[in-house]
From TrEMBL:
Belongs to the sodium:solute symporter (SSF) (TC 2.A.21) family. It is a multi-pass membrane protein. PROSITE patterns: NA_SOLUT_SYMP_3. It comes from the Archaea. One of its GO terms (cellular component) is plasma membrane. InterPro entries: Na/Glc_symporter_sf, Na/solute_symporter, Sodium:Solute_Symporter. Keywords: Membrane, Transmembrane, Transmembrane helix, Transport. This is Sodium:solute symporter. The chain crosses the membrane at residues 6-25, 46-66, 78-97, 126-159, 171-193. Its main location: membrane.
């Protein structure tokens, strides 16, 4: 399989645009990114339209286009769980999140653990909620990186480089991880919002 120059140019061009947006996002609606409220929530100043784009980009990811379809092809109908799961979780969120958002904004909560700690008056329960969130998020993050790795691997294999498939896969994974980690660390949620808006657009 060969990758022609147009395909390569489009990929590289879009990749550069997304990486630049990810890093430049730290200047979008400026705030003190050393504050967890600014880094993790964008200072709560994005508004409905940007949050809509962010949620859309959250759905249309490597999980949606690579992980679920490949799982469905490999294991069968077990992976059909993703369709009712998304519909159900968004229904529950529409019922509960507006109130949680209002309470969190008024009380200054940044994470679910902040909410639990004050409402339940239990530090240990708050720590358990935080750890559960971290553990539950790791497979999803891994899926995103693996999805990006798959795209980069196919592209690099198509270039017919003088390297083995394993070496190409390792290079692709390193590129994927470094880029995602770097602009997430420097821009926080702002990076996800701007790149998400471009993806949805």
């Amino acid at each position: 399989m060969n990758v022609d120059s147009v395909t390569l140019g489009v990929f590289v061009g879009l990749f550069v645009v997304f990486v630049l947006l990810g890093f430049l996002a730290s200047r979008f609606r400026r705030g003190d990114l050393s504050s967890l409220n600014e880094w993790g929530l964008g200072g709560r100043r994005f508004g409905a339209l940007l949050v809509w784009f962010l949620l859309g980009a959250d759905l249309f990811t490597a999980y949606t286009f690579i992980a679920v379809p490949s799982g469905y092809l490999a294991k069968g109908s077990l992976y059909w769980f993703a369709v009712p799961y998304v519909g159900t979780s968004f229904g529950v969120a529409l019922l509960t999140m507006p109130r949680l958002w209002t309470v969190s904004r008024n009380r200054g909560y940044v994470t679910a653990s902040d909410f639990i700690k004050e409402r339940m008056n239990s530090r240990s329960l708050a720590v358990a909620v935080a750890l559960t969130g971290i553990v539950a998020e790791l497979p999803y993050i891994a899926l995103q990186i693996v999805g990006l790795e798959a795209v980069l691997t196919v592209l690099l294999l198509g270039l017919n480089l003088a390297a083995s498939a394993k070496e190409i896969t390792e290079i692709a994974l390193i590129i994927a991880f470094v880029v995602l980690a770097a602009y997430t660390i420097t821009s926080g949620l702002r990076g996800a919002v701007l790149t998400g808006c471009l993806r949805m657009y």
